[in-house]
Amino acid sequence: MSIPTTTDTGLHGVTRTVSEEERATVQAVFERHGTPLPEGAVTVVFAYPGHGVGERHSRLSGCTSQMLLLSNASAGLSRLGITVAAASTEPPENHAHLGELSRSVARFTEDDAAALPHTDLPEGRYLLRWTMVLGGPRDGLLVTGITDSVAHTRAVIDLLTADRLRDWAGAAGADPASASAGVTAAYANGADSRGIVAFEAGTPLVAKVGPRAVIDAETAFVSEVNTLLTARGAAPLFPVLHGVHHEGEQATSLMERVEPLTLDHVVFGDPAKFALAEDAVETLEPHLRLLGDLYAATTEQRRPTVSDYLLRERFHSVRDHEGFVGTFRSFFPGWDPEAVLGADVLLPTGARLPGYTELTHWLDGAAPSLLPGSGCLVHGDVHLKNMLRRTDGSPVFVDPRTVWDGRDRPDIGFGDPSYDFATLLHSALPMSGLLQAVADGTCEALLPEPPPVPDGVLDLSGLTTPFTVDGNLKRLEDRLVAGLGPDDAPPVLRARLYIGAANALAGWLKYERALATPRAWLAVYAYVLWYLDRARTELR
After folding, report:
1. % residues pLDDT > 70 (the chain)
2. What is the pLDDT of residues 97-143, one digit of tens each?
3. Distance between CA 365 and CA 510 in Å, rounded?
4. 304 close to 375: Cβ distance less than 8 angstroms
5. What CA–CA distance (Å, rounded) separates 459 from 343?
6. CA atoms within 13 A on the CB side of 182
7. Strand 344-346 to 457-459 pairing
8. How far apart are CA 255 and CA 360, in angstroms?
């Protein structure tokens, strides 16, 4: 029985509904390829004959222009939570020039192709050009007979984008028809997000796409905190949540749009972001007071279950993490990680610090006496990039962290405020500056001469970043310690602050893509030891 078709001039092809055999074949091939298509979420599969085929058979031409367009546009669809995949009968080496998209091109055998629109030529069987949409409001759409591959690809991207924004507007309680202006801005992803974009739906909204478990946990925490604070007459800590859109294992939070300028663009006195401005503490004060409102409203005399992990155990967990192992191997081929972690480190100040192994061993003995006796609800990642302002200038935070390294715990969101302040401190020095160097492509200037393979000593004396506490950083540290309350002696409070900063920095050592170069990794590593040594000195 033939399947009804419709000519769609807007999509530059003929549309029909996929058969169950076609759907199953596509899903099976991508499963075999190692990139299984997500269930429930939207996927668009673009099929093409293969690069160079059009030179022999003109009716199959257009692959190169179509796929280059798709390679450039796929990041935009991915930010919307739409998976982009490609299908072809050509060998993988033929599409290596497509960069990141090339990993999503699954090769179909002649038997696979037989179940889908294809053509048989003397030299073999080729997939014809077709596009399949799975999941979402267009689930099962198949476009064949494509007359203009580039125009078709643009039209599909526009169609799926419009569908996505309408769905999000509805989930936010707005009229779906009001989301007609497209994406108005895109922002850098956090550690747990797939995309963050702004759009209009009668009111300015921001959509954050990520794993459903992460988004659901985050939105529940955001709602709890905002409700608690507003009931006490305080401002909400987070952007107001308008709704959540679920699809399979993926979800999107729809929230109030705030000013996009993050405080790492505001509080520094130098463009390299290694020196705080004179008025940095005053600039941060509204945000610190808002955090204080949260702490005061939720303090309980019980120890957060995450305390020992963040003060001690995570340092051991990081060095065994697959991200750390893979990043180290990529950045330092031939180096022995145990030798590096065990080596003393020379800093630009002339100081010689014990290595990671020795300092974390010291921490094992010191941490029990540092554990807090109380806790409260905390943000969990008070990084300057997570601190923004509303349009009226009032403080607001984004991207809370309630779980570290995937470890579940029974008291989600309940923690030690010293870790919140520690993540702010690590952002003030050095992380904002190091991330700026990565963004600017100036990491080589961080360490002009790479160190030799360590033999008991890792020489990082060539680092050009500051390893001293100037007056403005000291004022910030003093303000943070004062905000932690009178329950413990100041040396203990400062030690927690410095250990927390070292902890936050150690977490970056797992992220090859974020640090980008061995020089940035070595700079982060040096600061981990610097903060741990400062904590040890404080306790002496």
Report:
1. 95
2. 666 777 878 999 999 999 999 999 888 898 999 999 999 999 999 99
3. 25
4. yes
5. 9
6. 7
7. parallel
8. 40
CB 443 within 8 A of CB 516: yes
Q: How confident is the model at residue 407 (pLDDT cuts 50, 70, 90)?
A: confident
pTM of the model: 0.88
Average pLDDT, integer, range 471-482 = 96
Q: Provide the sign of the torsion angle of the four alpha carbons 376, 380, 384, 389, taken in this order.
A: negative
Q: 372: which 2 tokens?
A: 């807090």
Per-residue DSSP letter, 484? T
The span from the CA of 517 to the CA of 2, in Å, is 56
Other beta carbons within 10 Å of 121: 13
Contact 86, 77 (CB under 8 A): no
Rg, C-alpha atoms of the chain = 27
End-to-end CA distance of the chain: 84
- Report how far residue 529's alpha carbon sits from residue 360's, in angstroms, rounded to the nearest whole number: 9
pLDDT value of position 105: 86
pLDDT mean across residues, the chain: 92
The token pair at 145 is: 């007979």
218-242: average pLDDT: 95
Q: Tell me the helices (H) and strands (E) count for the chain, helix number first.
A: 18, 21
Handedness of CA 451, 452, 453, 456 (dihedral sign): negative
DSSP labels for 341-352?
A: HHSEEE-TTS-E
d(CA 229, CA 294): 7
pLDDT tens per residue, range 289-342? 999 999 999 999 999 999 999 999 999 999 999 999 999 999 999 999 999 999
The rounded distance, in Å, linking the Cα atoms of 505 and 494 is: 17
Q: Report the DSSP beta bridge partners of residue 268.
A: 276
